[in-house]
Amino acid sequence: MRLLISCVDGGSLKEAVCGVGTDSSVQNALQPLKLESINSEGTGNCVDIIHGLDNKFLLARRNGNVELVHFVEKYELKDKVTNLLNDSRLDPFYARSKRRVKLRDGFIMLQPLRNGNFLVVTKSGLVHVLKVNQDDDSIVKLKTWEVKAPLDFAQLCDNWDAQSNGNYVFGYGGEENQIKLVEIDADFGNLRQIWEAKNVKNDRLDMRVPVWPTAMKFLQPKRSGTVDKTKLNFQFVVITHWSHLAHYSTQYGKRPVLYKQLFENREPLEQLEIDADATTSLGNISTDRFEKFAIITTDTKKNVYKYDISGRLLVKLGNGDISGAVSFVKKVDSGYILQGGLDRYARVFDASTGERLVKIYTGGSTNCMVLLDGDRLDPAQREKKESKRKLADDEEDAERLWDQLNKKPKKAKK
Amino acid sequence: MGAEEPKIKNKMLRQQIFADLKDQKNKQRHKMRAQRAKEEKDDPNAKEKRLKENVPKTIEGMRVYDETIGQKDEADEEDLMQLFNNNGEPPKILLTTSINAKRNAYEFANVLIEIFPNVTFVKRKFGLTMKDIVDACSKRNFTDIIIINENKKKVTGLSFIHLPDGPSFYFKVSSYVDVKKIVGHGRPTSHIPELILNNFNTRLGKTVGTLFQSIFPKNPDFEGRQVITLHNQRDYIFFRRHRYVFENEKKVGLQELGPQFTLKLRRLQRGIKEETEWEYRPEMDKEKKKFYL
């Protein structure tokens, strides 16, 4: 297994090579074969988002740069776009924010569009379109728009079939910033808001319920039953800072279909990942029904929860092992869940069983991880296994096997 | 007494015999030690060899493996240095209490005012949120906030919040001994003390150690001969304050200044009490040989 890990402390990118069963916290357990820093640019320049393009990577750094780098054995910077963040746009929001630390801009989304274009969204509501040309390893900024800040997430809808006109749709939201759906023209000519959610009704005490969506994932557009073609057809799952799980369907209305508080103490929910048989490349859900899939979410303490879509707790991942807040969790195609956080360990779980496969001390709180190679064995183990297999192929062994097979089978005792 | 030995029914006699036996053993031991000391005086290598061979099995010695001990990473140092982000200026501390504090908290605050240099005490008022306090302090160039936590008229905890972006630490306070109760205590002066940090080995321990380093100025007044010791043993941090006294050219004596108290880390959070980086859980006490600092 080969991982690329981004650490906040020191702003380093680390490459880890390990096999299943690696646990660096136990002295006698299998240790990682390799854990090396390939690039280090200081805490203020740490990588927040990594997007892999075969041997090339797009890195969104905290200093406001998006870099195109080449990495096979050696880290090589090819091109970069700078000044994509704007802290001053967040200044007016600090006074009424629940956050106690001064708000700083950062990247919240870097997702691919068609034809080598990428959509980059920042906390301050800047939406950039970047063009990556892999032939001459260049990256350029095509367009920038502004949407209502502050943002905590943005998620691109990659159900391309649904948008017959080829336009792009993404959703965003944040602290006291209701979820909005935004459409971008296929030629990046214009950006317009097409839908905005409405807050739920006041609670039993007739008090307003605070708004703070923290993550969302799209479902397929509604197919079953009656579809009103005059209305938009988008469906999505949302989690909030106030520990709500919400189902939205634009066919149903602007309020959520379901709005369930998962914790009594309103523990903030931070990350959202989908655990389903099939998901899209951007982590959206390949079904049009709110059933038969689970969500993976995290709080600000140490828990990684797996809930079914109706809000019933299924399991806690890494319970008792994780000791700090989880800042990164992602389910990858090869059936693994990657997890990293403030406890400075990178972990890999088996998505189907929830068993911990790898635990590596990275030396810094983990910001982002990418699985480069999902082989369960490390290279040394693979070599050993292959050499055994070669022995079995030897001619002598084959002859011996034939001899055994030619012998008359013993009669079974009655 | 062995099982085969006849049992002496007379209790007085039994006790006497046992005391005699014990006395005899003690005398033998003292004799052996005196003899060994004499031998080791002649041969200094013998003592070294004996100490090397007879390593006692302590709980600390048998501590569970922790890969963060002894690892040195440049990234770690950069992360730890964020506690010293006040551009080389001495730390400026705001001291306050929890809301609706009682007498004990204020008395403890008086003690802390003497201990921490450049400290300003502010009485906690109702209606002020943590964000308001942090905002006001950041504007006045305070580098740290210390909050005394009082529960049921007892001082139970201390919060350290580094400004402007954290981290935040919460310690449990126990075993407080007032200055007046320490026999032969001295009177502290206003000199900046020297700081001794013992046994902060793990990555978490280093973070805690750096916190204490950052709240005391880097230029101690050596003429004051005052030392503050923060000694970590089995995750308990013992606070002691002494003055060293040169008795002659070779001998140094210690005079305790007090007070004494013990801290135990309960929580370390990013920012101003936001995401938890490490938190104490009662299950941690089950494993006696696992230490976190």
TrEMBL record, chain A:
The keyword Amino-acid biosynthesis does not apply. Transmembrane segments: none annotated. GO terms for biological process: ribosomal large subunit biogenesis; rRNA processing. One of its GO terms (cellular component) is nucleolus. Signal peptide: none annotated. Its main location: nucleus. Residues 380-414 are annotated as: Disordered. Keywords: Ribosome biogenesis. Residues 380-392 have a biased composition (Basic and acidic residues). PANTHER family: NOP SEVEN ASSOCIATED PROTEIN 1, WD REPEAT-CONTAINING PROTEIN 74. Involved in the biogenesis of the 60S ribosomal subunit. This is Ribosome biogenesis protein NSA1. It comes from Zygosaccharomyces mellis. The lineage of its organism: Eukaryota, Fungi, Dikarya, Ascomycota, Saccharomycotina.
Automatic annotation (TrEMBL), chain B:
Residues 36-52 have a biased composition (Basic and acidic residues). SMART domains: Brix. InterPro entries: Brix, IMP4/RPF1. GO terms for cellular component: nucleolus; preribosome, large subunit precursor. It holds the Pfam family Brix. Gene3D superfamilies: Probable brix-domain ribosomal biogenesis protein. This is Ribosome production factor 1. It comes from Zygosaccharomyces mellis. GO terms for molecular function: rRNA primary transcript binding. PROSITE patterns: BRIX. One of its GO terms (biological process) is maturation of LSU-rRNA. Residues 19-52 are annotated as: Disordered. It comes from the Eukaryota. Residues 91-274 form the Brix domain.
